[in-house]
């Protein structure tokens, strides 16, 4: 089979190689998945650079997040699934937990507890992006912060993939969103998506605008994926007792010095107003959630996407051979399209099982 392998840590375009590897064999409780589509996330690239929260043992197959495919073989004593079944693989490595197979290859072995069946009407493009960004949005809003209908939720990077999903989910749940963007040109777009308030840091004071928009009660719950001074301003803007959950650090996207990855919080605001600032990382959530809870959350996301409550933008397909273009697109400014590695054999957009020539192991 073909696999996209990083020979060492470094810039992805420099260290990735297209290799031929043996098709793996599933063990007990495992399935062999014929991969159909898998996204290229910016976090995948940071893993290869050695700048993420975990580092694989190199050489390593890229793609440490998610994919969609069909079950080509089942390991011994593996029940509850069938050959040809179309599934999403939540390949996010649990921290702490065992390593997971990379998704940038034609076949991979996965624990059946990380597989979620998906309906045929759901495109490969949508299905292969279920297990990271939509799940993150759901967990932040309903789990980490338990935002209730009618409450305000303040978020940065509202135009990001997760930010847009948070707006869609909040509208569905009756939550009011206050959305921070960097560019004036993004304001109308976020309003059209359903954002109740939009704050543009290009020409507006974040703290002042939050105070004006929220009124005397203020905002008590916020999520941030920018960090740096913007994250600090979000904390300052919260009402006493407010909670801020930080799940990313876009302001330090190209920063290589860990000491520079900071959030300059105002101590007086945090101490005297008893505010809480904490982090969220999907890998660590998978490390603490039970397999049953993880599959339940994934099933919730599947339902929200299938019912069109959450809309996942169509990805741009690339064959493995064009990995340099896919990697560049994944980090291009305001690209708006997720690059996907796709494998053309068989059916890519649902419509029933493809022929399977690999028997139960």
Number of helices: 12
Structural class: alpha/beta
Order of helices and strands: EHEEHEEEEEHHEHEHEHEHEHEHHEHE
Low-confidence stretches: 346-361
Strand content: 15-25%
User: Between the first and last Cα atoms, what is the distance in angstroms?
Assistant: 18 Å
Largest sheet properties: 7 strands, mixed
| Large-scale geometry | globular
What is the typical, i.e. mean, pLDDT?
92
Q: What is the CA-atom radius of gyration, in angstroms?
A: 21 Å
Helix amount:
25-40%
Strand tally, please? 16
Question: What is the gist of this entry?
Answer:
By secondary structure, the chain is of the alpha/beta class.
Features:
361 residues; alpha/beta; seven-stranded mixed beta sheet; 12 helices; disordered C terminus
What does this structure look like?
By secondary structure, this protein is α/β, with parallel strands linked by helices. It has helices at residues 12-15, 42-49, 124-127, 133-144, 161-173, 187-193, 206-214, 228-237, 267-272, 282-288, 291-306, 323-330; strands spanning 2-6, 16-20, 30-39, 60-61, 66-74, 86-90, 107-111, 115-117, 152-155, 176-181, 197-200, 221-224, 243-246, 276-279, 316-318, 339-342. It is built from 12 helices and 16 strands. Strands 3, 5, 6, 7, 8, 15 and 16 form a 7-stranded mixed beta sheet that branches. The protein has a 6-stranded parallel beta sheet with strand order 11-10-9-12-13-14, sandwiched between helices. It has a 3-stranded antiparallel beta sheet with strand order 2-1-4. Helix 4 crosses helix 5. The two termini are 18 Å apart. Residues 346-361 have low confidence and may be disordered.
């Amino acid at each position: 089979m073909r696999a996209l392998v990083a020979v060492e840590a470094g810039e992805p375009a420099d260290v990735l190689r297209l290799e031929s590897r043996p098709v793996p064999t599933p063990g007990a409780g495992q399935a062999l998945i014929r991969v159909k589509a898998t996204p290229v996330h910016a976090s995948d690239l940071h893993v290869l650079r050695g700048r993420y929260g975990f580092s694989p043992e190199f050489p390593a197959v890229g793609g440490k997040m998610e994919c969609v495919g069909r079950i080509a073989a089942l390991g011994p004593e593996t029940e509850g699934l069938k050959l040809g079944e179309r599934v999403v693989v939540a390949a996010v490595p649990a921290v702490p937990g065992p390593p997971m197979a990379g998704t940038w290859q034609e076949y991979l072995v996965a624990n059946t507890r990380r597989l979620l069946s998906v309906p045929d009407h759901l495109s490969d493009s949508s299905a292969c992006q279920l297990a990271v960004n939509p799940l993150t949005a759901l967990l932040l809003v309903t789990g980490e912060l338990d935002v209730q209908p009618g409450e305000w939720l303040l978020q940065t990077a509202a135009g990001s993939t997760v930010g847009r999903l948070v707006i869609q989910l909040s509208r569905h749940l009756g939550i009011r969103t206050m959305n921070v963007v960097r560019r004036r040109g993004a304001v109308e777009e976020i309003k059209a998506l359903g954002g109740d308030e939009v704050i543009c840091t290009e020409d507006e004071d974040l703290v002042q605008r939050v105070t004006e928009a929220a009124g005397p009660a203020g905002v008590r719950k916020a999520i941030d994926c920018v960090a740096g001074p913007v994250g600090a301003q979000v904390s300052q803007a919260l009402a006493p007792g407010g909670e801020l959950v930080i799940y990313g650090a876009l302001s330090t996207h190209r920063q290589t010095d860990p000491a520079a990855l900071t959030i300059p919080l105002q101590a007086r605001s945090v101490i005297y107003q008893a505010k809480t600032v904490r982090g969220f990382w999907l890998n660590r959530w998978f490390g603490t959630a039970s397999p049953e809870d993880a599959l339940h959350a994934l099933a919730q996301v599947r339902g929200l996407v299938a019912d069109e409550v959450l809309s996942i933008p169509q990805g741009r397909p690339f064959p493995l051979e064009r990995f340099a273009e896919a990697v560049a697109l994944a980090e291009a400014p305001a690209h708006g399209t997720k690059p996907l590695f796709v494998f053309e054999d068989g059916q890519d957009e649902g419509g029933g099982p493809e022929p399977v020539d690999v028997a139960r192991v």
